[in-house]
Amino acid sequence: MNLLYLFVIIPLLLMGGVAMLRDAKQIKILMAVGASLLLATSFVLLYAYMQAKALAPNEVMYFQSDLLWYPSFNIKLSLGVDGISVLMIILSSIIVFTGVFATWGLKEQVKEFFLWFLMLSTGVYGFFISIDLFSMFLFYEVALIPMYLLIGLWGTGRKEYSAMKLTLMLMGGSAFLLLGILGIYFNSNAEGGPLTMNILEIAKVHIPVEAQNLFFPLTFLGFGVLGALFPFHTWSPDGHASAPTAVSMLHAGVLMKLGGYGCFRVAIYLMPEGADTYTTLFLVLTGISVVYGAFGAIVQKDLKYINAYSSVSHCGLVLFAILMLNRTAMTGAILQMLSHGLMTALFFALIGSIYGRTHTRLINEMGGLMKIMPFLAVCWVIAGLASLGLPGLSGFVSEMTIFVGAFQHADTFHRVLTIVACASIVITAVYILRVIGKILFGPVQDKHHENLTDAFWYEKIASVTLIVFIAFIGIIPFFSSDIINESLTSIIGKL
Amino acid sequence: MDTNIVIALFILIIPVFNFLFLGLLGSKMSEKTAGTIGTVGLGIVALLSYITAYNYFFGYGKVDGVYLPISEGFEWLRFTEHLHIDLGILLDPISIMMLVVVSTVSFMVHLYSIGYMHGEKGFQRYFSFLSLFSFAMLGLVVATNIFQMYIFWELVGVSSYLLIGFYYTKPSAVAASKKAFIVTRFADLGFLVGILLLSYFTKTFDFAQICDTSATGAILSNNVTTTFLGFSVISWAMALIFIGGAGKSAMLPLHIWLPDAMEGPTPVSALIHAATMVVAGVFLVARLFPVYYFFTPTVLQIIGYLGAATSLFAALVACTQTDIKRVLAFSTISQIAYMLVALGVSKYGAEHEAGLGYMASMFHLFTHAFFKSLLFLAAGAIIHAVHSNEMGDMGGLRKYLPITHITFLIACLSIAGIPPFSGFFSKDEILVAAFEHDKILFVCQYLVAGLTAFYMFRLYYSIFWGKETHYHHTPHEAGLNMTIPLLFLAFLTVVTGFIPFADLITTDGKPMEIHTVWEVAIPSVLVGLVGIAIATYMYKKPTLMPDKVSNSLGGFYKATAKKFYFDELYIFVTKKIIFNGISTPIAWFDRHVVDGFMDLQATISNGVSAKIKGLQSGHVQQYVWVFAVSVFIIAGLVIFLPL
Question: Which of B450, B290, B428, B268 is nearest to B363 (CA)?
Fold first, then answer.
């Protein structure tokens, strides 16, 4: 049996299991086992991928399988992975695994929460293993719907408003996306023959340039909304602020990556000439995202808003790098997705832990937490340092790959934009250190905080796991960088 | 692998291991164990550095009378075909000299800290951070390529941040650490962009290839013609790279973080903010000296003048400060600027003492590291004894702290340029180099030499002489582990001046013959003596003289005491411009315009649907009426429109 099916089957089986159990504790244990199983399977997949790659180095996608779905439209459930999707799957598994532990303390409606959570995970996994536009879109929507309920029911603050806003804006994005996908579909038989949704087959034909110019912006925007592209990023601050911890983690950590991944796998891969036409426009927008998001984060008062704006900035860099259309910058973009996914998940996990204790997320109401909860505080500092790009942690590797790659662009305008994007490293330092200085250092702000406990065992598992992977990418960057680099050959060939 | 490289590799491995070991398991150890592990580790590192230096300078380093660099490394991260970050070790005269400086001072500071930090909460954490810093700084100096240097550059920055903010419950320490990191980060942005620009043309990060003027010469000189705002692209690149150095080395106007960094524990100031990290900028310019000299002489000249301005400015400010650590901080800024002046006036090669400035700069870096860390450690002993940083709380301490007194005096004489102490030799070479190549800079530095002698002895007399202060507890000398480092560094301050630097460290690796220039040396000693004499007259006995002088200077004195308002400028830029001027409007714009637009769509949809829902009234008559009218309109359109 194809290994890839497991990534859909395991979550579905888990859903069945969770639905049958009554006791919250048992559900959590089942989830922990299931998430560990997914994580283990991902590493088996990585190993299998490396074996397969060594045997047949020139394949574009490995472990392909087709399941005819709608014969009349030639729509198939096509699966396949390359190095990039394998890494994305590992990222998803890490976040799901740590997300389960980060929500261990959940008390209300545990069963329902995890059911929706698993559905969200199914969508995410399905998206990354699909190489067919139809199934990609299907899984994309599967991932979006549970979001609404998870935020609306288990969220905090203005949760109904945020849930509605997030869902509507992302749905608006997918409306564009659907148009784009249909556009690609109806142009997928330039040389005659049946229409197809399969990315690999479409990549072989040349979509007419006029069609590319029409459908590229639609597809890019559609995915871009999810990747927090300026000016369609405003769902992110509200959505993240209201979402419960594990959902924030999964959403910022993985779901936002669907945007970047889609932009690069669908929009750029299939319509390189369209990309070429629109790079300037979109580069300016993503460049704005990078700097604007960082500046926006400086003045926020709520930890989640700070992190949300920071995500706008970091995810903007992903799209920015993809649009540079060269191998190094794209490698950097994928690395940035991994890096941002891990560190933002760590941030949200920590915010969840801190909020669970202090019952506030406003930075002015906290102070001196380093003294009260040293473990969580140290993790926060590490996450912050990763975010501001300290060498030895993942952020440095991805950002430097992006900057160096982008700067190799022959056009001066692109290089100037790169310099502007580089400025974000300073602004990031400002808001990260501001938060650290306010909430962790200094005297204890609130007397009631003095007796709070430090991290529980499950919070420690979540944070340490994430930190280990952040440090792994940071210290041994060539491992992931090489996997990505090799997998980019076919897409670079199209440019 | 070459055994010498292996030895150098252990110089890096020991501190990083100590960092992880003490960082992860420190909380389970006693103070004594943690302190011993850290100190012994650095002791071994220092020993290995001396072995490396000895073997290099008196053994394998010299081939046919020229010191050649040797290096080894592996590819860490590949960007493009040509551009990749390597991690490696480069051994050449300046990197070995820096190894000796860093490991010696770091070892002394470790030893001293066992006593100084005794009983502090977070003792183990402190030693772990010290090891991290030592690792980063040692990695920086042996970097084989500019990107590796940038990596370690950032790591020293963050360890400096962690150590300045060591007393994290103290708001001023937190603010200082934040300021230090952000100001240097801003400078590092220049460094990064400079690296990007330079490597775009040279297609390599490797120092050996960049500095090999025969190989890159063609590429660099071709691009010298591409200009932007009157400067060649390469000039811009090198200037931007220098900004990174200026940030770390606290040159105007990026110096603002250094005086505040004194909030950290005093041994940290001695190690990071006096001897090692702050000279990274000088080291950077020295490392890329061939490029600066051959392709961007204008930039090198600017560096020289900026250095002169900074050294004069800092020396003036140092005369007015009352916190002893701040006096030393401004003195450090001034002395580092001195080194940059020396580089700015240097030429290349061994003939006719052309490369004298370069050698003098490195020499001064070397001697300064020891006497300045001595000054800081002695200041630490004083603070330890009287529990205050303010000169006003001190006086007459020579009776209570004899060892500190003598060692402090030695260091003061050295920095004032009095023979036979080491500062005299290195400062004299700088003045000679300036005298021969740029008279304006010479006059400026001559003045600074006098000011230096004055403010150092003002400090000395205020602490050890002056008024007899009554102390609550009788101050007493600290334990052995604090006095031994003082004595050892005092010993180095006396002897390092006699090291024949001109034979060892030169621009091109060839030994250089230097002559004593009496017409520079004698006046330079005289100006130092004049400075000391004035200070003696004003501060040895408590008089009203200082107040009179400061009153007669009026506004100028006030401006100097306020450090020429640079701190106010910093606050203006961060608070008013970045926070209120950019970020707040952006956040507002995002909430009310961008997001407002999204909300507006929702509101409109709501409104429209509220309006049109009336159409679903359930009244059959209304439906029929709408139906009939619609049929007529459509029919009309079909008939009359030419389709």
Answer: B428
Closest CB to A298 among B189, B583, B602: B583
Summarised one tens digit per residue, pLDDT across range B32-49 is: 888 888 899 999 999 999
SS3 state at A488: coil
CB of A387 less than 8 A from some CB of B: no
**CA separation for the pair B191, B201 (Å, rounded):** 16
> What does the buried/exposed string (b/e) look like for A295-320 if buried means 16 or more CB atoms within 10 Å of the residue's CB?
bbbbbbebbbbbbbbbbbbbbbbbbb
Among A397, A433, A485, beta carbon nearest to B181: A433
- Report which residue type is found at A481: S
State whether A391 and B151 contact (CB < 8 Å).
yes
A 298-357: CB under 8 A from B: 298-300, 327-328
pLDDT tens-digit series, residues A153-192? 888 888 888 888 888 888 888 899 999 999 888 888 766 6
How far apart CA B510 and CA B451 sit, in angstroms, is 35
B582/A295 Cβ within 8 A: yes
DSSP string over A425-457 = HHHHHHHHHHHIIIIISSS-S-GGGGG-----H
Least confident range from A225-229, A338-342, B87-91, B462-466: namely B462-466
CB A18 within 8 A of CB A113: no
| Straight-line distance from the first to the last Cα atom of chain B, in angstroms, rounded to the nearest whole number | 86
pLDDT given for residue B446 in this prediction: 87
| Helices A110-129, A83-102: inter-axial angle, 10-degree rounding | 170
∠ CA B280-B282-B287, nearest 5°, is 90
Q: Is the pLDDT of residue B355 over 90?
A: no
What's the burial of A195, exposed, middle or buried (CB within 10 Å: 0-12/13-18/19+)? middle
Measured in angstroms, the CA of B73 and the nearest CA of chain A are apart by: 15
Distance CA B12, CA B600 (A): 59
**A387 chain-B contacts, CB cut-off 8 A:** none
CA distance B166 to B574: 23
CA torsion sign for A268, A271, A273, A277 is negative
For chain A, which residues make up each domain, given as ranges?
Answer: 3-494
- Give SS3 for B66: strand
| Cα B313 off chain centre by | 17
pLDDT digits 0-9 by tens, B430-467 = 888 888 888 888 888 888 998 999 999 888 888 888 77
Please state the φ and ψ torsions of residue B292, each to the nearest 5 degrees. -60, -45
Closest CB to A478: pick one of B76, B193, B582: B76
Contact in structure between B372 and B331 (CB atoms under 8 Å) = yes
Overall average pLDDT of the A230-258 stretch: 86
Per-residue confidence band for B102, with pLDDT thresholds at 50, 70 and 90: very high
Per-residue pLDDT of B261-298, as tens digits, reads 888 899 999 888 888 899 999 999 999 998 888 888 88
Per-window interface: B 156-215 vs A, CB < 8 A:
158, 161, 165, 168-169, 171, 174-175, 177-178, 181-182, 185-186, 188-189, 192-193, 196-197, 199-200
- Check residues B78 and B225 and name the one with the higher pLDDT: B78
ipTM over 0.90: yes
Residue A310 above 80 pLDDT?
A: yes
CA of A432: which chain B residue's CA is closest?
B178
- What SS3 class is residue B145? strand
* DSSP helix/strand/coil, B232: strand
pLDDT(A354) > 80 = yes
Q: Does B586 touch chain A (CB under 8 A)?
A: yes
> By CB neighbour count within 10 A (0-12 exposed, 13-18 middle, 19+ buried), where does A333 fall?
buried
- Among B residues 493-552, those touching chain A with beta carbons less than 8 Å apart: none
